[in-house]
Amino acid sequence: MVQAQTAAAGVVEQLRKRILSGSLQPGMSLPPERELAGQLEVSRATLREGLSTLSQMGLLSIQPGRSGGAVVTIPPPTTVSASIALLFQTRAISAGQLSEFRRALEVEAAQLAAARRSDRDLEEIAAALRAYAHAGQDARSQNVSGWAFHLAVARASKNPLLAETMSSLNDAFTECFELLHATADPVSLILELHAPILDAIRARDVGAARQTMLLHFDQLQQVLHSRGLSERPIGRQSATTAPAPAEAGVTSRRESASLVGRG
């Protein structure tokens, strides 16, 4: 069994190197199974196992039947999204770790958006902010609109890996929001936290875009730490109860908004 697994791993490594080096180009069909197994000096069962792994990596497309076969493909950006989403589904990630990861992505996305955004991108970001500000007093609607704002910024970066990775965090963001934020935010606070990011991207001010997004995550991490929530697990629906609401007041609302990462 160990030998078979080692042989299958060898198949994966050999073919992966050929694909990544360019000797096997996208769209090329691999030789028939019997011939390819002979070339690689493995059994056909071992070859099939290796081809299946390469297919899961997005490097091959396998069509069944006599007229089918294995064809070299290019992994789509959604491969990254699916892998990260799977990570959140199969192990607990803390709220603090999610914040750190988002910070790394969104600060870069904001400054790239300021440099690369089109007029259409700018309108999508602005429309998302308008929808967010007019979501009313329903926290779930604010969650959807707030996430749309951050995703629109990532898409404006023109980097498909950033956009797809951000998209993969939707479920984790939603869970974090529902767990930690039970009340809706006032319109004035939503605009106070998000308008500077939009203004910097509109002005194509890369430095300001970076600083406004950094400020957002600095606030988020401070609130997570101060309320003892940095280690709170998410990703498995692990927590069943939300913390008690903060006492009424502007400062508490601001912390609550920062907590769910919508600044």
Short description:
The chain is mainly alpha-helical and 263 residues long.
What does this structure look like?
This protein is mainly alpha-helical and 263 residues long. It has 2 domains: 2-72, Arc Repressor Mutant, subunit A (Orthogonal Bundle), CATH 1.10.10.10; 78-259, GntR ligand-binding domain-like (Four Helix Bundle (Hemerythrin (Met), subunit A)), CATH 1.20.120. 67% of the residues lie in helices and 5% in strands. It has 12 helices and 4 strands, in the order H-H-H-E-E-H-E-H-H-H-H-H-H-H-E-H. Strands 1-2 form a two-stranded antiparallel sheet. It has a two-stranded antiparallel sheet with strand order 3-4. Strand 1 (60-63) and strand 2 form a beta hairpin. Helix 2 (33-40) packs across helix 3 (44-56), helix 5 packs across helix 7 and helix 5 (95-116) packs antiparallel against helix 8 (160-168). It is elongated. The N and C termini lie far apart (53 Å). Residues 237-263 have low confidence and may be disordered.
